[in-house]
Amino acid sequence: MNDVKEKLVDLLAQFTRLSSIRLPDDVLRKLHELSGSETSERARFFYDAMLADLDMASSLMRPCCQDTGIIQYFVEAGSKSPYLDLLEDALRQAVVLATDRTPLRHNCVEVFDEKNTGDNTGTRIPWIDWQVIPDNQDLSIYIYLAGGGCSLPGASKVLMPLEGYEGVLRFVFDQVTSYGINACPPLLLGIGIAGSAEVAAKLSKKALLRPIGSANGNERGHALEVKIEEAVNAIGIGPGGTGGAKSLLGVHVEQAGRHPATLAVGLSTACWAHRRAHIIIHPDLSWEMPTHQGAQL
Amino acid sequence: MSIHHLKTPIKEEEIRRIRTGDLIFLSGTLVTARDDVHLRLVKQQDSLPIDLRDGAIFHAGPIMAASKDRPGRYEVISIGPTTSMRMERYEKEFIEQTGLRLIVGKGGMGRRTEEACAAHGCLHAVFPGGCAVLAASLVREVREVHWLELGMPEAMWVMEVENFGPLLVSIDAQGNNLFEQQKAIYNEKKEAELRALNAYIGEAFRI
Ligand code: SF4
């Protein structure tokens, strides 16, 4: 079993490392597309730097942004995966290993002690979110590197239902025009709508894990995504926040049934360096990475 | 949009010639200073381990690696700007007390920094956020590190840079503030967009 665990830890460490270096294929495609749509000199200045940075990061195998974030894993665990007992500890060990190997910046500060732990693990960190998939043998793991700048616009709030979707939009737009500008746009907006603050917040983060441009399962929900994207782009924040034709990688909304008396909204934002990665690990430890074609770990 | 090449120590006249929207390339010494360094100097009234007069600071928390060939020395792996607004609370006093000429960071800064820049001849400029490997490639050497006990991101890293940039000037010494000007535009457009969106929702969702 030890040998197997070592292999699992190594695989997860390499996965974590790669996620800090190479952006997922869909984000990269979108950045190229957005870059092509800008004509102003100032907007070009930002995209040229981003694309040059990504090239250098891949060829030197270094984190594309220095803020490699608080490390978060979102696990969809097959109920029949042989690694369920090992996984939590394996993820912690993988973080320590990846921090050393890559290297990743030391970002975990213990609350109250106010000390940096120096290895990116700490109380409840890496953050692990579990979901069980019945009758399945695989581990499906998303990683998200939650940087400081892009986590700062995050918020959630419970509104009175009569404030309606207008209240939801006001909340989102105010956050984006105040904090979003400093969060390294173009941004991906994750919006959760639910009945209580923590559900809305969690859904807003899960929305960031969807492929860029994927649609909300509800027709009206998707229409809203499209409308919000058009409206935020029209504000003209641009890459870097100093103006441009487009400001977003996309808008993803996720929802859960709400209480008749509450309408909660949550917002999470991802920056242009949207370091999300997805790996599926089979029982024989073979794997695929749907977000990073051709990846080698 | 004009382009300026600056070298530390930077003269006040040079700073006063530059305007928001201009681009700067910096050569000479660049020192990282973020939250804790500001806190230590301004709030805890510690003295800084190095002289920043006519110098340049970088709001940045880098990833450094101990050099393999040169014991005791460091190499920069990745260094990009952090959100400058976090330092707004102490930047005015920081400028007053150090005689600094250039602050490099990310996003805008506020009224107090603007005042200190105008009064003392200092600029705030941005390096594209997150472009940390690109920035690292413009660092020639990490010369010293101070206050490493604050942790890698918060320590003062003293670096030699060459043509570090382009840096987009966001606050000049004339009282102009690029991000604040832009924000006023965004806020106006935001209201118009929200009105249109609300009208659409009322229609489409029938609520
Ligand atoms: S907002 Fe994103 S790209 Fe910008 S510094 Fe933070 S993690 Fe890096």
What's this, in brief?
The complex is a heterodimer of chains A (297) and B (207). Chain A has 297 residues and is of the alpha+beta class.
Top keywords for this entry?
heterodimer; A: 297 residues; alpha+beta; five-stranded mixed beta sheet; four-stranded mixed beta sheet; 8 helices; B: 207 residues; alpha/beta; fumarase; 2 domains; five-stranded mixed barrel; two-stranded antiparallel sheet; 6 helices; 9 strands; 33% helix; globular; binds iron/sulfur cluster
Protein described:
- The complex is a heterodimer of chains A (297) and B (207).
- Chain A is α+β, with helices and mostly antiparallel strands and 297 residues long.
- Chain A has two domains: 1-147 and 274-297, no CATH class; 149-270.
- Chain A is built from eight helices and eleven strands.
- Chain A has helices at residues 2-21, 25-36, 41-60, 84-101, 148-151, 164-178, 197-208, 219-235, and strands at 70-78, 109-110, 115-116, 127-133, 139-146, 155-159, 187-194, 248-255, 263-270, 276-281, 287-288.
- Chain A has a five-stranded mixed sheet.
- The longest helix of chain A has 20 residues, at 2-21.
- Chain A is globular, with a radius of gyration of 19 Å.
- The model of chain A has no long low-confidence stretch (mean pLDDT 96).
- Chain B is α/β, with parallel strands linked by helices.
- Chain B has two domains: 3-176, Alpha-Beta Barrel (fumarase), CATH 3.20.130; 178-207.
- In chain B, α4 links the parallel β6 (102-105) and β7 (123-126).
- The model of chain B has no long low-confidence stretch (mean pLDDT 95).
- At the A-B interface, α3, α6 and α8 of A face α5, β9 and α6 of B.
- The structure holds iron/sulfur cluster.
- Iron/sulfur cluster sits between chains A (65, 67, 147-150, 183-184, 271-273) and B (80, 129-130).
